[in-house]
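User: Can you predict the 3D structure for this chain?
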Amino acid sequence: MSILFAILAAASLRAESPAEQKVLDAIKSQDLSIVHLWAPWCSNCQAELKSGGWLKTIKDNPRVKFYFVSVWNGGEDGRAMLTKFEIAGQPNVTLLADPGPRGSNHIKQFAGLPLSWIPTTWVYEGGDLRYALNYGELRFPVLQQFLDDSKSEWSHKGEPSIE
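Assistant: Here is the predicted structure, written as structure tokens:
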């Protein structure tokens, strides 16, 4: 039984890809960072790009670091599509690609978090995950609100107690 457990445990481990390691290093910084997991073949990801929401959000938030990580795409970073929508080449955008395949053997976690659907978008600040949008297409006003809230100083000093 212990041999079977050891084999299953070893099989479930996955070495971090260079893209994943770069993201793990980046999200440790004090910067406000967006990690966007996507693929150019995904119709939901395409719809986000066509809306212009990503480009507007990137340009409206020049101090935020955006990491577009292509997943389930055989190691291709989707640069051609991101160039078409003027995202590639923005000074606060980094394009990365996980080498994993599309299909039943695709990765199921990234940077220690589950990955079951794309697009998936995570907001980090100061090394902490602030928001995880794991269900698909974004509503960009909601993402902007999350960015604004992450920049805010949260304090309840001076407010009356509810007790």
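The chain has six helices and seven strands. The longest strand covers residues 32-38.
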